[in-house]
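Reviewer comment 2.1 asked that we show a complete input and output for one of the modelled complexes. We chose the magnesium ion case, as it is the one discussed in the main text.
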Amino acid sequence: MRTRSEVVARPLQAVDEQLAIDKIEIRTVRLLLKEPFETSFGRIDSRLIFLVSVAAEGLSGWGEVVAAEEPRYSYETVGTAQHVIRDFLAPAMLSRPVASLSDLSARFETFRGHNMAKAGLELAYMDLLAQTRGWSLAQLIGGVRTRIPVGVSLGIQLSLPGLLQRIDRYLDLGYQRIKLKIKPGWDVDIVQAVRRRHADIVLSVDANCAYTIADENHLRALDDCDLLMIEQPLDHDDLLDHAKLQSAIKTKICLDESITGVKRAEEALDMGSCRIVNIKIGRVGGYSQALAIHDLCYSRGIPVWCGGMLESGIGRAHNIALASLGGFSLPGDISASSRYFARDLIVPEVSVAADGTVEVPRGSGLGFELDLDYIASNTETADRFEARGLKK
Ligand code: OSB
Ligand code: MG
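Response of the prediction step:
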């Protein structure tokens, strides 16, 4: 087995320097989706984007909290993240200079859960740290890819023709993998119809916890559809039933909601609950857990890929940096800005080349400019916390 240090030389761990954060700002920015996005747990028309910025040494680092407005994908919401950052995480971050990513994550670990809130601050810190060195985020974490392969996640549609039309559109644009959201009533028949029309495409499905182990025989019908994977078929905390299902079907199970940290990932692999892991920086609490899960999976020969949460370009830029690591061998849910929004919060927007790849930026930090005017004009709420005496 490869050891962690063989995986990647990780510059962020080599240097220890103090960064005294003087200000943390959080804001919510409403972005309309170009079209509604429907999963097994609900349908949304817009995304309330939760941005975090941290300032030190005249620089600002930016991150995004991926929580939704309602506790459906996760128990976290925009509201719980505002509370947890304001009352616990921001004070912990501002209490004394931050020596390293592990210093910051150790402070946050003293509070249980709320990974998405923690991740927002970790992401902003990492952008800031990269900028203080003039490095890109990918460089900071030891990324090796200059371009990353990407796919698209297609929500549940009103009709099969509508789905087929969207599949054609994204295949024409070069996307390397099509992922279909499924739920009871929109599953085997739909997937079979897509497969009949496209014998050779890389196809996967994502159930977002919509089934139970009692659906084993129904789900086994997907074994004939030559899927790359079935993502999160069963409940979010049900590693045991996922292990039973994985031993009963041929299709590889990939876990998303279940993988909340490196300890859970290790349990899932030990139990045989999945054969592929979706890493989302937000769901796992930030870079420190995301890197640890990447390294664990790499050492065990388990493929990983970078999931998405319909982020703005700011969260997406972090996802691109993460996906530049060597273990990210499968296409990520990192689509072009234009797949989600009429206008993104960064310049240039994220674009997908005709070969279905996204370029890893080489500029300092995120490697994109922020469209501060557009952010300001769409801001719904804003709060700031400062080092001396927390201020609103
Ligand atoms: O389960 O991967 C998921 C979006 C919101 C919440 C959960 C999920 C998703 C997606 C879209 O599948 C991924 C993206 O394009 O950002
Ligand atoms: Mg998923």
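The radius of gyration is 20 Å. We note this here for comparison with the apo prediction described in Section 3.2.
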